[in-house]
Structures are given as C-alpha cells and as structure tokens.
Amino acid sequence: MNAVKIGLCGLGTVGSGTFRLLHEDEGNIAAHARCPLTLTHIGARRDHPDCDTANYQVSRDIFAVVDDPEVDIVVELIGGTTVAKDLVEKAIANGKHVVTANKALIAEFGNELFAAANAAGVALRYEAAVAGGIPIIKALREGLSANQVSWLAGIINGTGNFILSEMRDKGREFADVLAEAQALGYAEADPTFDVEGIDAAHKLVILAAIAFGTPLQFSSVYCEGITRLTPEDVDYAEELGYRIKHLGVARRSERGVELRVHPTLIPEHRLLANVNGVKNAVLVEGSAVGPTLYYGAGAGAAPTASAVVADVVDLARDLGAGQQPRVAHLGFDCQALQDLPVVPMADVETAWYLRMEAEDRPGVLSDIASILSQQGISIEALIQKAPEEGESRVPVIILTNVAAQGKLDSAVAAIEALPSITNGIARIRVESLDG
Ligand code: HSE
Questions:
Q1: Residue 435 lies in a domain
Q2: 103 is catalytic
Q3: 223: which strand partners?
C-alpha cells in the first residue's frame, strides 16, 4: 500500500481539531484507511496553543503546502471565499485532491470548483461543510442513492440552535448566548452569518443539490434569520403545542424546488423539535426508505474534525490502493444534473403563526377572520388574552391552515390596515414535517 500524504492548511478551531485527531489517533485512522496516512506539511499563519507542531514541517505561507510535490491531499480549513478559493483552485491545478469544511466556498463556487476538479481528475470532498460531525453528505450522496428525495428539513446551524435553546430553557438574553457560542468556537468569524441564516443557507444549498441532483443554487435561497424572534412568540408557540426552530427546508415539487431558511413552528412531539443546544439534525424523506433522521454535534473543533478526517480516510482508501476516487461530487454524474427552477416564495405553501395587537372591542376578530377568509385562509387555532389592567389592546395569536405566502401577504397587509390593529403583525411559518 502507498502512504498517503496530507497537507493541512489552517490551524483555527477546525484546523486544530483536525491536527489533534490526525496526530493523536493515527493508528485508528490508518487502520480505517487501510494504508499509512502521514501529515507531511502544515500551512498556518500562526501557531495554535493546543497543537504541538514541533515535529512537523510548518510554512507560514499556506500556498507552500499546495506547491509541495509530496502532498497528495490538501485539507483547506482557512475559511472564507477569497484566499481559500485561490488555494483550492491552485491545489486542483496542481493535481491534488482537496478536503474542505468550507460551506461558503462550496455553496457559492462549488459548480466551478467541481468542474475544475473533474477536468483535473481529482476529488473535492466537503463532508464537514454541513452539520459538523454528522455524516449527512455521505448519507445523502451514497447511503440514499437508491431513493428519490422529495424533501428534507434540518436544523443546520449549531450557533442559532444553541441560542434558541438557551433563550427558551433558561430565559437567557440573545447577545449573552451568542457571546458564549463565539467563545466555544461554534460561531462563524462573522456571527451574523449564523443568526441571519446565511450559514444555514450555504448548507441547505449543498444538501439540496445532492438530494435533487441540481447544480448549487446559492443566489436563489430565501433566507430569514432568528434576530426578530421574541420571547412572547416562543411562549405562545409553546401554548399552542409547538417549538420554534430555525430550519432549512428543501422540497421538490412539480414546479421546481423550494429552498428556504427561516424560523419555523414545529409540533413539539416531533424529534426535530427536541433537538437542542449546538446539536444539528436533518430529516430526509426518501422514496424507498421513507423518513430518516440524522442527528449529532453541528459545530465545534472535534466533531467537525471527525467529518474532515472521514473524508481524508475515504480518499486515502482509494489512493492507497492506487485507484482514483469514483464518487461524483454531488453524487450524480455531472451530465445528469438538472437545472430545476426555484419556486418563488409567493407560491410556497405553509401554515402560519400570526401575532398581532388588537383593540379589545366587538367585531375586531370577525374583521380579521373575514380578511383571511377572502384569501381562502382558514383559522386552525386562536388565542386571545384578556387585557391587562387599564389596557385597551390585547394580543391575538392565530394559527392558519396551509396558504401560499402571496395570499398570506395580501391578508396581512389588509389586516394591518385595520384601525383596530396597532403595530405590525409578526408571522412565522409552521411545518408539520409529516410529508
Ligand atoms: N457556525 C456554524 C454553526 C459552524 O454554528 O453551525 C458549523 O458549520
């Protein structure tokens, strides 16, 4: 068996976790790879306090790693889409296989990078880009290859789920929990990527491309973050038997594919509703297998390193035996990819949670119900609280049946125009996750 030589670029959170795994668990990893695996070259602008690299070749110029003729697999863990893109392109051009945890790079530039990798006859692997340590890419791309996937829904940002869980369970402030997520190494360098849903959108696009056999379509994802959620919404959702989770949803229909990231009410008895803290979970509906659920740590050094090293081992199995990796980047032959249209959000149908503040007087509820009914929207549940002492307005919370967003938008605009309604209406999508 040939020894496979690894070049590691980046010693940040995931890079240091990967270094430690390769350094400390070499025997186990080589046994899985069925060939010797050697970390030969590290490229990092600075040292990491948890990594003793004294016995390794270390370059401050990370490009020295991709130019090293000894290196077979370049592991890109520097993040971002500028230097990282140059680095991956150079590695591919130099005939190296690449493993990356970089979801932004794959989601935004994957189509061109996969084409370059195909032309160069090398593999570009990215298991760690989605859902941290959960092997969801391998599950979708290989484990479910006998299925047509009709939809998937996932909690795919650990930081956001950690924040929502801590706020709900412990009543903690948003900013305080976010600071802890940053200290624990869960959050992105720019944490707005986590809380505004961009990180989840990157991951959703990757999952959808594999699930439906489409090119990556990052510019078409609908993306709504968790920053506007209020403690009242969390409490009212509970009263109605739901939990609020930040979901990425991809659904295939005859009109194309839905790609959306947004806060979502989920029935509290669903497994996804009970995924808490930094854990991620992805629910996938396959034509043969039915629903399957994948759960685990969605962020953090060691869980993400687990996925990085799994990709390295997978490549090493083939390379060590003198073969080229054969699994296609998105699981389908590139000729078989279908450029399906993304369904406009106005046409996407979900049930809705609405919260508004209304004058406490006769006829108000009937005005609201009449506007909803004009749009063909019926009310599934309603909460109206008694007014506080000396208060003439009351909160009204409504759960609707399934309605296209366009119809809901029209109804909400008309209700907001009623003189009895003060302030705007808060609205959150509701998913039953049952088919
Ligand atoms: N910031 C990401 C998260 C890290 O919180 O899920 C893992 O991709």
A1: no
A2: no
A3: 261
